[in-house]
């Protein structure tokens, strides 16, 4: 991360400092069997109108999460420069190879974008993308909004979130942006493992960082897309980049106090959900049962809540393996 490092191999085909709407690509050279001297072309839009704050908007950090790409491709197409004060940088599908393959991680190097920061200019494809965000795009930004959902293996209640941070002033500005987003739920988030995250990279630079989990299951819904669409405009209004008042929406704040919020499977089997998302749960309550698939006559294993709260996330597919995250509990603030 020092200035003695190699330059990024990624080049933008559009300018970042000229007024107007510029549609182009981040071009990442990637020579391979089907394209000698070829490149990966990551779609990018820059909308700028004079001086002002910069918002960096990303989807597709994980390739199988869809609300972000849907609303950001749409916003890139429709946002006019005269409706902006400052700059909006839109990358609808950050880990573009993963997005094309509809997988969480990159099919090229199995890279999980959100575990790859700060990346490397001379690393894998995923590391090169992370490095470009780390050293080129994040430093330009004042406010960063990164869309996530559960992907193929998790499903979430729709929430926007920011992290509990050591700098309380930065934390307060981040939670104010989360409130502006206006999702049905807002989470004061604690990560199970924050190393390598885009979130941490932005927060360590002092940026306001808002993330979301809007749904999941490897698809989207009319409801979650509408939440995302209102949320991105609200964040831009809150930042003073797009004119007009934030469109208020009722939000329930939640805390995620720690390890006892998470339940993980310890055996493989057939997953029986015993409560659905948004349900109030009590410590000791059975949230799911795992039935053995090997034989009849065996009792299922019960997974019990370790604290009171509401169910904010659940494993989505019908089968589980040891280590799969089965349930996450949030606590109404
Ligand atoms: Zn994600």
TrEMBL record:
Superkingdom of origin organism: Bacteria
InterPro entries in the record: AstE_AspA_cat, DoeB, N-alpha-Ac-DABA-like, N-alpha-Ac-DABA_deacetylase
Ranges for domain Succinylglutamate desuccinylase/Aspartoacylase catalytic: 51-238
Keyword Zinc among record annotations: yes
Cofactor(s) demanded: Zn(2+)
Record keywords: Hydrolase, Metal-binding, Zinc
UniProt keyword annotation of Transmembrane present: no
GO molecular function: hydrolase activity, acting on carbon-nitrogen (but not peptide) bonds, in linear amides; hydrolase activity, acting on ester bonds; metal ion binding
Name listed for the protein in its UniProt record: N-alpha-acetyl diaminobutyric acid deacetylase DoeB
Organism encoding this protein: Gluconacetobacter azotocaptans
């Amino acid at each position: 991360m020092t200035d003695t490092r190699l330059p990024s191999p990624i080049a933008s085909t559009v300018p970042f400092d000229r007024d107007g709407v510029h549609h182009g690509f981040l071009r990442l050279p990637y020579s391979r069997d089907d394209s000698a001297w070829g490149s990966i072309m990551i779609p990018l839009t820059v909308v700028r109108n004079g001086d002002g704050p910069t918002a960096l908007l990303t989807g597709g950090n994980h390739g199988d999460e869809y609300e972000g790409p849907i609303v950001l491709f749409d916003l890139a197409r429709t946002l006019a420069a005269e409706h902006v004060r400052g700059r909006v940088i839109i990358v609808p599908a950050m880990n573009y190879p993963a997005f094309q393959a509809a997988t969480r991680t990159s099919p090229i190097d199995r890279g999980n974008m959100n575990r790859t920061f700060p990346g490397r200019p001379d690393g894998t494809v995923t590391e090169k993308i992370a490095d470009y965000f780390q050293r080129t795009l994040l430093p330009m930004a004042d406010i960063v909004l990164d869309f996530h959902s559960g992907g193929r293996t998790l499903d979430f209640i729709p929430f926007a979130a920011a992290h509990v941070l050591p700098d309380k002033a930065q934390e307060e500005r981040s939670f104010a942006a989360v409130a502006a987003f206006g999702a049905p739920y807002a989470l004061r988030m604690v990560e199970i493992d924050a190393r390598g995250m885009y979130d941490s990279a932005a927060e360590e630079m002092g940026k306001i960082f808002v993330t979301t989990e809007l749904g999941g299951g490897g698809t989207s819904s009319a409801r979650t897309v509408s939440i995302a669409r209102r949320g991105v405009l609200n964040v831009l209004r809150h930042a003073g980049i797009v004119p007009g008042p934030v469109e208020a929406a009722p939000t329930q704040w939640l805390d995620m106090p720690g390890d006892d919020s998470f339940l993980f499977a310890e055996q493989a089997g057939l997953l029986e959900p015993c409560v659905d998302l948004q349900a109030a749960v009590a410590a000791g309550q059975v949230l799911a049962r795992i039935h053995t698939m090997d034989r009849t006559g065996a009792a299922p294993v019960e997974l019990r809540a370790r604290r009171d709260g509401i169910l904010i996330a659940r494993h989505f597919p019908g089968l589980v393996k040891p280590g799969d995250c089965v349930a996450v509990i949030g606590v109404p603030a």
